[in-house]
Amino acid sequence: MSRVVKLAVIPGDGIGPEVVTEAEKVLDAVTAGSDVTFEKTRFSLGAARYLETGDTLTDEDLDAIGAHDAILLGAVGGLPGDPRLKDANIERGLLLKLRFELDHYVNLRPSRLYPGAPGPLADPGEIDFVVVREGTEGPYVGNGGAIRKGTPHEVANETSVNTAFGVERVVRYAFALAEKRRKKLTLVHKTNVLVHAGAIWKRIVDEVALEYPYVAVDYLHVDAATIFLVTHPSRFDVIVTDNLFGDILTDLAGAVTGGIGLAASGNINPDGAFPSMFEPVHGSAPDIAGQQKADPTAAILSVALLLDHLGLGAEGARVQRAVEEDIAARTGARTTEQTGAAIIARLQA
Amino acid sequence: MSRVVKLAVIPGDGIGPEVVTEAEKVLDAVTAGSDVTFEKTRFSLGAARYLETGDTLTDEDLDAIGAHDAILLGAVGGLPGDPRLKDANIERGLLLKLRFELDHYVNLRPSRLYPGAPGPLADPGEIDFVVVREGTEGPYVGNGGAIRKGTPHEVANETSVNTAFGVERVVRYAFALAEKRRKKLTLVHKTNVLVHAGAIWKRIVDEVALEYPYVAVDYLHVDAATIFLVTHPSRFDVIVTDNLFGDILTDLAGAVTGGIGLAASGNINPDGAFPSMFEPVHGSAPDIAGQQKADPTAAILSVALLLDHLGLGAEGARVQRAVEEDIAARTGARTTEQTGAAIIARLQA
Ligand SMILES: CC(C)[C@H](C(=O)O)[C@@H](O)C(=O)O
Ligand SMILES: CC(C)[C@H](C(=O)O)[C@@H](O)C(=O)O
């Protein structure tokens, strides 16, 4: 019985196309000869498209992307400070719009320190945790505004919106994940200061915890969590947190586990109502674009997450293993393509 | 000409009293025989006081504290999860109330990696930067609320309030500081996502920058800033940022520079309308309270900041130097008192 998966590919800007090229090759290699075929549609989106056409993400784009089974994204964003992009907010208008419109309420970001990966910590211990970051609300909603803008009397407000609906579904996902892992869940927030947003997170975690008696639950303020990420990262199994704290913690976690060149992520709609989107945590890095300097590993690990999500766990595990073997054997500098080829060689060995 | 400084001392909870005791001894030692006398008033505030009397910070407390020239605070906060503290929020009702009521709009947090200090980074390089954290607005204002509380339809909002008045004064302080240091200022925010709050920070930094042509200005998103704090902390000189990002970055910075046992801070009202307050960045650590296990160094370095602030720069520098010498010579475990005594011995040498 053969299966066709419709995959939307958004290479994006900067190093996006380079890393996505390698990720696609890995996807092709791991599914070659199997009964799954990926039917790919390429979408030209990002700063380059905006500069050409003035469009960030049209309704037609969104409809077309939404008709796929899954999305692979490289990175989007132009040169910082480019005056022609002054009025564009590619991040909000494209990346966050995709996450919000496609209801990617779970932003899944695994952090593992692979043997052989270079990290900044002198004595990291074992690192293997997953951040389950809320993806569709919190301080990311764009809710706010300013009065007396540009004057000495300006007041600018930015509102974090947290709903029981939105918090509960991501918290449930995190508990279910913790139950399949080492059975430990840490809520990260700042409940002592952000009393309104904090209270709803705390309440819902406490309530859902009753249904998971075998999952040990603890709580850390976000500031304390950053300390533990550098002094005792092995204490974490599953972290559940809001959109903004998740953003901060996962960049730090990426750094601690060998750099965001290795950090993969999935923007997941667990209900399956919309296609989920897989992307490296890193950005478009325009300064090194087109030079074959980017590490495609994060994009390739995102393919492993994509395969898992599609129920192709065996294929995902093969990609994962090939990457691990490659990382353990890395020496010296390689081009983007060389790294991709090395991982494919491991896959095929 | 002799000078009397009226100092309010708030030992607080947990390890607060132990570290403040050593800090006071250092203060006494460094001013002994000089023409400055510290007239101290002790205030019993914190979880212990709340449990006894039900009071967190009364108007009388606030008036009395406000009549002093400066404040030395240990740490406040009871045992996490203590059911008797369920309805108290000591952090908001006491610590943040002091910062807000006494208009501590500069939360000054220097980060230095002292020679000999143990840190988690394999190759930290030189670390010497100062975080100028806004202290009276942003997401800390407590502005927000919830509807349908406790139900599946709850919506909880938390609003960050940012004013041109509030942002400009702290940004000006940061530029003036950068000019006296290595002339580099980094704004940290998340302007690509928090568009309303981010825009006012960006605008004001850009405007004030015009008055400081010799200060190099750059910008980092908060997530990227956490990466640099562990991969390249020497890139920072002065960081200016909002209340929440400053909270997160300074705990991480503390961890990176040898632990928050060494991190000092000043809650400063530069206008002098209210007394400034000096406190270690660490909390009350009730788990190790009363055991002489706490490191008083952060409290002692806070005394150095206090002396500086009062125009007693020579005395502040002596404390600073004594601490540096002591850190360089540290071996094995010591009691809180032994560390205090060792630093005083250096002072008097
Ligand atoms: C580019 C930006 C909008 C995005 C975010 O803040 O979520 C990025 O930092 C990430 O973590 O995926
Ligand atoms: C205790 C808490 C309210 C406080 C803060 O968030 O400011 C603390 O973390 C700090 O950094 O001084």
From TrEMBL, chains A, B:
Catalytically driven reaction(s): (2R,3S)-3-isopropylmalate + NAD(+) = 4-methyl-2-oxopentanoate + CO2 + NADH
EC number(s) per entry: 1.1.1.85
Site (Important for catalysis): 140, 190
Keywords carried by this UniProt record: Amino-acid biosynthesis, Branched-chain amino acid biosynthesis, Cytoplasm, Leucine biosynthesis, Magnesium, Manganese, Metal-binding, NAD, Oxidoreductase
Record-linked Pfam families: Iso_dh
Key word Metal-binding present: yes
Sites where the protein binds substrate: 99, 109, 133, 223
Cofactor, how bound (note): Binds 1 Mg(2+) or Mn(2+) ion per subunit.
Signal peptide: none
First-level EC class: oxidoreductase
Pathway the protein takes part in: Amino-acid biosynthesis; L-leucine biosynthesis; L-leucine from 3-methyl-2-oxobutanoate: step 3/4
Xref: InterPro entries: ICDH/IPMDH (IPR050501), IsoCit/isopropylmalate_DH_CS (IPR019818), IsoPropMal-DH-like_dom (IPR024084), LeuB_actb (IPR023698)
Superkingdom to which the source organism belongs: Bacteria
HAMAP family assigned: LeuB_type2
Quaternary structure note: Homodimer.
Stated role: Catalyzes the oxidation of 3-carboxy-2-hydroxy-4-methylpentanoate (3-isopropylmalate) to 3-carboxy-4-methyl-2-oxopentanoate. The product decarboxylates to 4-methyl-2 oxopentanoate.
Annotated protein name in UniProt: 3-isopropylmalate dehydrogenase
Protein's organism: Microbacterium panaciterrae
Gene: leuB
